[in-house]
Specification:
2 domains; 55% helix; elongated; WH-like_DNA-bd_sf; InsJ-like_HTH; Insertion element IS150 protein InsJ-like helix-turn-helix domain-containing protein; Homeodomain-like_sf
């Protein structure tokens, strides 16, 4: 599923930019942005687009990000490495991938591991009582000394 925020209409962009440019001395970016119910950061971005290419440049729209073939290959390699060696660390995985010619951040590796259930634990399910039964008893416990 691809989701993205619908872009603002071009007319709104043009009106906001023109309003700011005509009232530059009397109103701040924050005031103009507030008038059009947009963030000042958005208005600054539109002003940058306008300075780069004029009003026609305000017609650009954000496109949804679709995963490329490269993304699937990276995920496949990360999952294969972790499945072959469950004790592999993030940094070690990153180094191996780098030797393969793939630049992948540790954050991305962790995200892939979590998505495929390879991260080792699930947040909220790491309780001591879940693991106490799996710990081998000590000699003292077996002999009744503790």
């Amino acid at each position: 599923m691809v989701s993205y925020k619908m872009p603002y209409p071009t007319k709104l962009r043009q009106r906001a930019v023109n309003t700011y440019l005509t009232e530059k001395g009397s109103r701040t970016i924050e005031e103009v942005a507030g008038h059009f119910n947009i963030s000042s950061r958005t208005l600054r971005r539109w002003l940058g687009w306008f300075r780069e290419g004029g009003e026609g440049n305000l017609e650009r729209a954000r496109r949804p990000h679709t995963k490329s073939e490269f993304d699937f290959e990276v995920e496949k390699k990360v999952v294969q490495l972790k499945e072959k060696n469950p004790w592999l660390t993030l940094l070690r995985t990153q180094k191996i991938l780098k030797r393969m010619g793939l630049e992948v951040s540790t954050r991305r590796i962790w995200s892939i591991w979590r998505r495929f259930g390879l991260s080792g634990f699930i947040k909220g399910e790491l309780f001591l009582e879940n693991y106490v039964n799996n710990i081998a008893p000590s000699k003292e416990t077996l002999l009744g000394l503790k």
